[in-house]
Amino acid sequence: MDFDRIDKKIRNSRKEWMFPLGVLFIVMASIIFLRNLILITTELGIEFFIDNFTNSEITNEKFVIVMIIIGIVLIYFGKIKRKRYQNEIQ
Prior knowledge:
Elements: H1 3-13, H2 18-43, H3 46-54, H4 60-89
Helix pairs in contact: 2-3, 2-4
């Protein structure tokens, strides 16, 4: 058996998952942000919504910030991995 050829075939068929997962994190964070913006501002006002970003409690708004940061990091490392993979092919 030609293990080098099999290994190369497996390596070439491997998908890069960090970039799409980073996009998914950012999309989900924006959905949560917009949902909270609409629900909280219609009932309690924009001041309460903005206060959730600055108070000391753990709130959905702070999770949105963390999800956006994680998404950006995943996109960054996904781009690096994609460039490295394209350099290996050439």
